[in-house]
Amino acid sequence: MTNNKTVVEQLVPLYVAECMGGTIKGRTRLQKLVFLTQHAGRAELRVDYEFHKGWYGPFSNKLGRVVDDLVAMGLLIERVSSTSSGHRVIEYGLTKQGRSILQTAGRSLLANRTKVRIQEVCKNYGSMSFMALLEKVHTDYPEYVLKSPWQF
User: Fold this and answer.
1) According to the model, what pLDDT value does residue 2 have?
2) Which DSSP letter does residue 144 get?
3) Which of 28, 71, 132, 143 could form a disulfide bond with 128, CB atoms 3.0-4.6 angstroms apart?
4) Rounded to whole angstroms, how far apart are CA atoms 52 and 61?
């Protein structure tokens, strides 16, 4: 972690994990929750994950790299699990070290209004089924969804 902007970029997904009870089930779910946080609270967030159109809606390579860095630093743990329908899904779990970083750096570098916004997003959208979350994002932000070649 080098500068305050980079630290905040790393704290946001950690705080999302914290608000989700310490575990986020699915890369796509994490992407959508951070997107909703950023989109609705851009002025508060002070970072830009550079979301662009994707098949599953908004996607950020930058956020993917941040999450990979958090895993490499031992702040998040990445596990493979299965959905109830048997599909493979990546889970991210907040580690003790990740919680410790949130308690120290998060206290001073994440604005209270940013924390509140993340809490609201997790409360309103975090427990939605995967398909309901995708439908919500696709409906509300169609400009971030690539149309598949077989859709008319």
Assistant:
1) 57
2) G
3) 132
4) 9
Domain ranges, ordered by start, for the chain: 4-144
CATH of range 4-144; options 1.10.3470, 1.10.10, 3.40.50, 2.60.40: 1.10.10
Q: Rounded to an integer, what distance in angstroms lies between the CA atom of residue 134 and that of residue 105?
A: 32
The 10 Å Cβ neighbour count of residue 100 is 12
Number of H helices, E strands in the chain: 7, 3
> Average model confidence (pLDDT) for the chain?
90
Q: 48-93: per-residue pLDDT in tens?
A: 899 999 988 999 999 999 999 999 999 999 999 888 888 899 999 9
User: Residue 1 pLDDT > 50, yes or no?
Assistant: no
Residue 63: which region, alpha, beta or left (left: phi > 0; alpha: psi -120 to 50)? alpha
- Choose between 73 and 150: higher pLDDT: 73
Burial class of residue 17, CB neighbours in 10 A (0-12, 13-18, 19+) = buried
- The two tokens of residue 93 are 């779990």
